[in-house]
Structures are given as structure tokens and as C-alpha cells.
Amino acid sequence: MVQKLMLLLVMVALACPVPAYAEKDGVLDSQEVQFASWLLLAFGKPEAVAANDVIVRAYAPQFNGSWQPLADYVTANAPFIGSLQATLEANQARLVAYVAKETVYGYGAAKGSLDDLWDRVLDPIVAHVDSVKTDPKVIALFDADRCDEDGDDSACIELEINDLLADMCRTALTVFPAFKTFQITSESGGRLNGTDGTDILVSRGDTILWGGPGADAFVVGWVGHMVIEDFGPEDSIVFPSDFFGDTLQDIVSKLHAVSDRPEGLHVEFYDGAVQITFRNVHTIDAFQVLALDS
Ligand SMILES: [Ca+2]
Ligand SMILES: [Ca+2]
Ligand SMILES: [Ca+2]
Questions:
Q1: pLDDT at 3 > cutoff 60
Q2: What are the domain boundaries of the chain?
Q3: Within 13 Å and on the Cβ side, how many CA atoms surround 225?
Q4: Which ligand is nearest to the CA of 31?
């Protein structure tokens, strides 16, 4: 079943107008209707199901529910959502710009700038879910688990490093919804090749990454030396905010060394535990740096 708590957090990243908590009480309140609508929009498609499977395999998180039920629901009950997903994908550049602005200027800097998009792509789904919210199948899918962190709540699972990184990857899926491929290297590293569209390439260990054409996301997914062969002006370098902070200033403060070498810009964090070489690149625009929440 879909893991609810983890996904509640995902929404915050894009400031989607959905409140954070609701009760698993056998009915769907307005918060849960909003939340369900967001889930169907962002993850109710085969590409997202497959990407989440990749995340689960790579990080083996405790929260390992398949998203297949979301895609099945869209196919069987609400195929109109497909065109709204396409609209969201067509607006990927705005989503990325939103996160870039929040990273560079800080929390709230881009507040409200996506409201018209949410009105367009989310409101029709909310109307749909609202009309079927007493259907037991819909309730079973979307009645949320509230986790009371202060109490002795078995639904509350303490997030470990891999869970945080897995959730950060899921956030990346919402910021780059037009992704053609989502790939993660093995813990010991390796090589990833993108396509002519958007690719989300997650680096672990010593890696060589080639994004190809399109707005690609190069994601720091664990320690190691990341060599990006073709970091272009349309691409982004993505840092998990749990480890690097929420803002560009936070990320820069974690820098251990920077050198502009003939082969390209080289940066090191955490005493060199995380290294990135931008091959043949000597300057990076501030808005190419994204901090993503788990
Ligand atoms: Ca409920
Ligand atoms: Ca690409
Ligand atoms: Ca590219």
C-alpha cells in the first residue's frame, strides 16, 4: 500500500497547498482529498511506479510500498488525470525554477508562484476525488496514517539515512515530472547515461554521469566522486537538504575545497567525502543548484 507519511512530506517541497496531517478514521476529510489528488497527479503513472521501484531497490527503505495502486486507479477510474499529468510535465521548467529560487533566496521566496498551475492541474482531480470519497475502495487507498511523533506510536518509524535519501529521490520525481529515465548507481559507483530528454541521475560511490540533451538532474545520492561529463546550462545539480541544508548559502558553507582545474570545476564537501567534477565547465549559475527535501 502507498506509504502515506513519506508522501505527505513530499508535497511540502513544492508548496502544494495541502495541509500536512489527517486521521486514519475510515473517512476522507478535505485534507485527505487534497492529498489523494496530489498523489494521483504526481505518482499515478507507470513512469513514477517504475521509478519508485528503482528507489526501493537502491535504498531498501522501510517504507517500500509500491505505487502501482495509484496508476491502476487512474487507468481504471480517472483517465482524465493523464492529460493533467501531461500539463504538469510541460510545466517542469517552472517547478525547477521554483525550487531554484527557494534554494538561492531561502524559504518562501517563490511562494505563490505556482498557484495558477495547481489550480489548473489539481482542482479537477480534487473535484473528482471529492465525488467518490465515500467509496470504500477510495477510502482504503487514501485514508491517511497520522504519525504522532511525541507518543508511543507504532506508525511512527524513525527515518534512517537511506530513507531520507529515498524520500529526497521521490521529491526529485515531483520537481522533474517529465523525466524520461530515473537511474541510481550501485553503492560502489558506476556509470549512468541519460537520454535526449530529462533524466534524473542519482550518484553513489565513484560515478561518471552523462545526461545528454534535455534538462537533467544530477543528484548527490551518497558519498563518492561524481564526474559529470556534460553539465549544461539547462541542467541542475541536486543536493539532499537533510545533509547539505536548505539554501545555497548552507550548501556553500559545507564546501571543503573548490578548484578550477583545466578539466573542469572541482568541488569537495565533508573533507572530500563528496566530490563533484563538472567536466569542461568553469562556472555554474546559482539557479542550477537545488536543495531537495526528503
Ligand atoms: Ca481520514
Ligand atoms: Ca538528458
Ligand atoms: Ca542535459
A1: no
A2: 4-142, 179-292
A3: 7
A4: 1
Contact 266, 281 (CB under 8 A): no
pTM: 0.92
Q: Which residues surround ligand 1, an ion (CB under 5 A)?
A: 23, 25, 143
Say if residues 218 and 199 touch (Cβ distance below 8 Å): no
- Residue 207: strand, helix, or coil: strand
For residue 206, the tally of other CB atoms under 10 A from its CB is: 16
Long-range contact pairs involving 175-178 (C-beta distance under 8 Å, separation at least 24):
175/13, 175/14, 175/92, 175/95, 175/96, 175/99, 175/217, 175/290, 175/292, 176/92, 176/95, 176/96, 176/200, 176/215, 176/217, 177/42, 177/85, 177/88, 177/89, 177/92, 177/95, 178/89, 178/90, 178/92
Length of the chain: 294
What are φ and ψ of residue 131, in 5° steps? -80, -15
Q: How far apart are CA 242 and CA 222, in angstroms?
A: 12
> What's the CA-to-centroid distance between 30 and ligand 1, angstroms?
9
Ligand number nearest CA of 196 is: 2
Burial readout 172-203 (b: 16 or more C-beta within 10 A, e: otherwise): bbbbbbbbbbbbbbeeebbebebeeebbbbbb
**Helices assigned H by DSSP within the chain:** 4-13, 30-43, 46-59, 68-77, 81-90, 92-105, 115-131, 136-142, 161-175, 241-244, 248-253
Cell of 114: 505556482
Q: What is the DSSP string of 220-259?
A: E-SSEEEEES---TT-EEEEEHHHH-SSHHHHHHTEEEEE
| Residues 144-190: tens digit of each pLDDT | 876 666 666 666 667 789 989 999 999 999 999 999 999 999 999 99
Query: Ligand 2 center to residue 32 CA distance, Å?
Result: 35
